[in-house]
Design goal:
Elements: E1 2-6, H1 13-24, E2 28-30, H2 31-41, H3 44-54, H4 61-72, E3 81-84, H5 90-103, E4 109-114, H6 117-125, E5 127-129, E6 136-138, H7 165-179, H8 181-188, E7 192-196, H9 201-211
Parallel strand pairs: 1-3, 1-4, 2-3, 4-7
Antiparallel strand pairs: 5-6
Helix pairs in contact: 1-9, 2-3, 6-7
Length: 212
């Protein structure tokens, strides 16, 4: 099974991707995770990528495509994978088709998590993280017992730079402009699977597995 997970920032691609990994035992390949790891390590690629991510802009293709190409060639991706966060535009999708042909892969479905803009803003701007134990919270859906401090160690919770309302709005603008046309691209190929991305996580996952 080879899937692409589509949807705006905050649509739940990471969460649903992890559930798919648990169900099917295939790797979730997230360019976002790989780029954030590179940024935290302070590599040349990571430093450049962080400048774009902090501004809510898409990381340029030349900083991303080599990572994805290498990852898809690994042994654990031979029987299938879930691509999360890539491709991000139709130019990347077309180039990715070329790479798939070279390494003998073919995408079977593009799963779109459809979530309204207002819900995305609520999800992303409410996220908080403990800088010590890295426990994740949400100021609406998963609040700490005491305001803005971690339940486990009392550390003051922090917000990711790219979760501020200003940056989230810019990320959504970029998604609408550059990434959303992928929906039409994969729809024209007959492999688009549109899923209602609102509601409890388990219900969304059930919709995905039934559709697949």
């Amino acid at each position: 099974m080879r899937l692409i997970l589509l949807g705006p920032p905050g649509s739940g691609k990471g969460t649903q991707g992890d559930l798919l990994v648990g169900r099917y035992g295939l790797p979730r390949i997230s360019t976002g995770d790989m780029l954030r790891e590179a940024a935290s390590e302070g590599s040349e690629l990571g430093i450049k990528a962080k400048q774009y991510m902090d501004a809510g802009e898409l990381v340029p293709d030349e900083l991303v495509f080599g990572i994805v190409r290498e990852r898809l060639s690994r042994v654990d991706a031979g029987n299938g994978f879930f691509l999360d966060g890539f491709p991000r535009n139709t130019a990347q999708a077309e180039e990715l088709d070329v790479v798939f042909a070279e390494i003998g892969h073919e995408i079977e479905a593009a799963v779109l998590l459809d979530v309204p803009r207002e819900e995305v803003l609520r999800r992303l701007t409410g996220r908080r993280m403990c800088p010590v134990c890295h426990t994740a919270y949400h100021m609406v859906y998963h609040q700490p017992a005491n305001d803005c401090v971690c339940d486990h160690d009392g550390a003051k919770l922090s917000q990711r730079d790219d979760d501020s309302e200003e940056v989230v709005s810019e990320r959504l603008r970029v998604y609408e402009e550059q990434t959303k046309p992928l929906v039409d691209y994969y729809k024209s190929r007959g492999i688009l699977v549109k899923i209602d991305g609102t509601g409890p996580v388990e219900e969304i996952f059930d919709r995905i597995t039934k559709a697949l």
